[in-house]
Amino acid sequence: MTKYTTEQIDRNNIRFRFIVPSAEFDAILEAVYRTNKDKYEIPGVRKGRADRKMLEAYLGRAVFTRPAVDKVVSEAYCKAASEYSEEIYYTPVVTIEQNEPGSDLVFSARVKIHPESKLCDYRSVLLTEEDRKKAEEAVREIPESERDSTRRYLLQSALISRIADQSAIEIPETMINERAMDMAREFERRLEMNQESLAEYYKESGSDEKTMLAEFAAAAKEQLRSRLTLLAIARTEGLEATDEEYDAEIRRLSGMYLMPPEQLKKFFALREGAKLKQDIGVSKGAEFISQIVRQQSENSEA
Asked: What residue spans of 84-194 are helical by DSSP H?
């Protein structure tokens, strides 16, 4: 049975190392041979009649080894990545370490796990008069009781956007596409709740699937840019989720889901738990930015 280990190279990179027992790999080689043997001919031997050793001797061992290795690498890596505690959005760099006849197949896959974010001097980034003007124009259209909170949110969003503009925030395409597809599924679900269909929506709006997904992708990219900026700020400021904050959030969610905290914690043990900790970090990063916005507003009024 294929086994693997996980090595944390640094904060942003891991390496999976796989060992495939020789008997297991040989069985895969044999299956690849049986599937493909009819494609090859050897002089003096009827097509499809040559055994594996004959074909390997004539065409080279790689004729079956290469597709067998590709199959093993793909399946083993996908399994390891799916079992890792965080989503992986990057393509791994695979190194075949051992692939000799009669020996175990050994290979490794190094992969980046977090998007790179190089922040600017975000504490010195200032809101502009244009930012404040836009916020004031927007709150005129809503009830007075909601204006203060909405104004703070708009100014916070504007400052996050300015920080992101001056920083280098990497957003993997796979992450954008995944978020866009989630948004599309949620949109379709809302249509169904209103007893409408996507086909009806396309007809009424003059849109189509390609246009809709492109719009969701643009929105997803902007959302992710803000989220990754806040995560980077949270890490820089030491505002990542503590164990106490994580447990408190689990207790809060247990009330929402009507599930005992310990049971919910088991459910969140791997990937969902990592996402929850990121959510807490994003919230703390947003609060940090809110404090900067308040200070800038006070300074502008002084």
From this structure: 129-139, 147-165, 173-193
d(CA 280, CA 113): 19
How do residues 187-227 score in pLDDT, each as one tens digit? 999 999 988 888 888 988 898 999 999 999 999 999 999 99
CB neighbour burial string for 65-84, b if at least 16 within 10 angstroms, e if fewer: bebbbeebbeebbeebbeeb
| CA-based nearest residue to 237, from 152, 155, 158, 122 | 122
Closest by CA position to 122, among listed 159, 79, 71: 159
Strands 13-20 and 117-118: unpaired
> Which H or E run includes 126?
none
The per-residue pLDDT for range 15-74, each reduced to its tens digit, is 999 999 999 999 998 898 888 777 777 777 777 667 778 877 877 778 888 999 999 999
pTM of full prediction above 0.85: no
| Parallel/antiparallel/unpaired status of strands 117-118 and 93-98 | unpaired
The two tokens of residue 57 are: 């001797």
Is 245 in a helix, a strand, or coil?
helix
State how far the Cα of 261 lies from the Cα of 255, in Å rounded to an integer.
8
